[in-house]
Amino acid sequence: MSNLPIRIAALYHFTRFDDPASLKPGLLACAEDNGVRGTLLLASEGINGTIAGSDEGIEAVLDYIRALPGCADLDWKESRAEEMPFHRTKVRLKREIVTMGQPDLDPVEGVGTYIDAQDWNALISDPDTILIDTRNDYEVAIGTFEGAIDPETKSFREFPEWFRARRAEFEAEGRTPKIAMFCTGGIRSEKSTAFVKSEGLDEVYHLKGGILKYLEDVPEADSRWQGECFVFDERVSVKHGLDVGTHSLCRACRRPLSEADLAHEHYEEGVSCHQCHDERSEEQRARYRERHRQAKLAEARGDEHIGRREEDG
């Protein structure tokens, strides 16, 4: 995989930016000048995103980010791809770099204990450990750790309410729960551990570097991971060693699709899948068909078609 031409860097860093808006122009210019595409989010709590480009281009952007206030020890996960997985370069200003809806939470000061990938199996094999997947339901559906609890959330905003509703169960029989949490790259579990600690629980752990680091570092023969890991780019999913997985993407709802899902009667390329068919109107599906037709025409011409992502129709 190391000889593939496109370098992909998934990164996040919690720090304090006094004026995130002032950082946007320079960061965007650096990425564009170096041919780097992808999306970076800036908020007062830090930076988050995934970018792709040449080795030199990615290194230039990472150097730029490391020079931002409080980012000298920036960490990131890398993989490679045959083709560019992003269409545009975007730097967006947000209230949170990962939205939980807890504005007073301080993920810089209150984070849980990091567990390295090579030590993760021992922690989650302990019968006293409560293992929680902090990702959304469609991500969990294609892969998770053996024995993990699926909160069945549609968005990360739902996690605090879910946890508060389940807390009494976790503390049953007067025990002090030992809670381990994980997500794709680490950012959601980092914030969720800070939240759980703010609720008064202290023995809280999370997988450093997330699932991606685990799949990169832990041999498949020793792995407790089952299935594939959804990623938010054109690879759709990855397997052990961060090899590209077998899933494709529904262009209407952006959910992952297995090979079996493609045979479902409600699957129409670029238009619908069995998960979103009943969520969309025929008018919306007509728009998706036209968008898909235009994309195919552009592909036939050798052009790049960049359509608007229609998340909520």
| Outline | globular
Structural class: alpha/beta
Strand content: 15-25%
Helix content range of the residues, please?
25-40%
For the sheet with most strands, the description reads: 5 strands, mixed
- Pick out the low-confidence regions: 305-313
Number of strands: 15
Strand order of the largest sheet: 4-1-3-2-5
Distance between the termini: 37 Å
Order of helices and strands: EHEEHEEEHEHEHEHEHEEEEEH
Average pLDDT level: 91
Cα radius of gyration in angstroms: 20 Å
Keywords: Oxidoreductase, tRNA processing
Domain Rhodanese: 125-223
Catalytic activity: uridine(34) in tRNA + AH2 + O2 = 5-hydroxyuridine(34) in tRNA + A + H2O
Enzyme class: oxidoreductase
Q: How is this structure best described in words?
A:
By secondary structure, the chain is an alpha/beta fold. The chain is 29% helix and 21% strand. It is built from 8 helices and 15 strands. The chain has helices spanning 20-33, 55-66, 117-125, 137-140, 159-170, 187-198, 210-217, 282-301; strands spanning 6-14, 37-43, 46-53, 75-81, 89-93, 113-115, 129-133, 143-145, 178-182, 204-207, 225-227, 229-230, 237-238, 248-249, 256-257. The strands form 5 sheets. It has a 5-stranded mixed sheet with strand order 4-1-3-2-5, with helices on one face. The chain has a 4-stranded parallel sheet with strand order 6-10-9-7. A hairpin with a 6-residue loop joins β14 (248-249) and β15 (256-257). α1 (20-33) packs antiparallel against α2. It is globular, with a radius of gyration of 20 Å. The relative contact order is 0.12. Mean pLDDT is 91; it is low at 305-313.
